[in-house]
Amino acid sequence: MPRRPTARAQGALLALALLAGCREGKKGPDRPADVAVVNGTGISVDQFAEELAFVRRTSAGVLPQTDDENLAFRRATLEDLIDRTLVLNAAHDSGINVSAEKLDREVLRLQADYHGAGFDEALAEGKLSRQELRERTRARLVAEHYFVDEVFARVVVTDAEVEAWYKDHEADFNQPEQVRAAQIVVKTPQEAQRILGKIREGMSFDEAARRWSLSPDAKVGGDLGFFKKGVMPPAFDQTCFALQSGKVSEVVSTEYGYHLFKLLDRRSAEQRPLARVRGEVEKLLLARKREEAQKRVLLELRAGPDAEPCKAARSDAGQVTEEAVASCLRRAGQARIQINESVLAQVQL
What we know:
Blueprint: H1 7-18, E1 36-38, E2 41-43, H2 45-58, H3 67-93, H4 100-111, H5 118-125, H6 130-151, H7 159-168, E3 174-175, E4 178-186, H8 189-200, H9 205-212, E5 223-228, H10 234-240, E6 252-254, E7 257-267, E8 270-271, H11 274-303, H12 307-310, H13 322-336, E9 338-339, H14 341-346
Antiparallel strand pairs: 1-2, 1-9, 3-8, 4-5, 4-7, 6-7
Helix pairs in contact: 1-6, 3-6, 4-6, 7-11, 11-13
């Protein structure tokens, strides 16, 4: 039997299907009106209906029910398709491409998440042929390369930004007292007392846990790892935080059974200094700045030639701000991207 595909595999196939781009539709006087026009290229009703159908089939969330929800669903799908079309066009203009070798490796990586016929079944569910999979994989990789090479490469986090963020969020790095403990869990108090006697006679707690504990952590000697108060059940906290290092508790009763605990280690409460968490803060800020940069670039692509004047947009206070620039870019994009609202509302789901 094919194994259930991983969430990563399902997400990847979804992303591939959504990266189809704008295909050229029928031409001539009988050609129906497009749902939208992006830089002179139309998104046809057939293409958009196909996109909507696929998103509905693969959606993990609650599907729209009311007319208003259905219209919002259509609009969100269309807006995503517009953004992807603009990104792929920009990548093409930048000369970004993907080699056949890299494309082959990525398709094999996707296929590796399935056993037997599972991969073909997943394609059939998404109504994708293997050739379409390759084409859409190429499109996804091109889009990823565009953001990495043309957008994220210019995003940096300075020492001053790291220090300022740490100062503003210093309380987030208050590390409370933590203990590392191991447990043994059995069904009866008599069994727990018998094991406690074996430990007091010299058997190691690790061996006893591996031999008799019913908990899944028995395979690692009952090791629960480090935890702070409030994470584990109250009885765990009351017992483990009161133990001295290396000591074993008496039998403790909980809703899960009868426990023995051993304290393995303890960490005192402390304020983690910037030197220790600098890498963590840098990673957080870099992810946030990349997300902001991606949103900004999408707005600029929608605005097209009108993006440059927007970079000098000023707020009501007369200052150039990110909010003022973004507002200007949104207005410019709305003026350039032509969406046929009547056709959008009529596309069948």
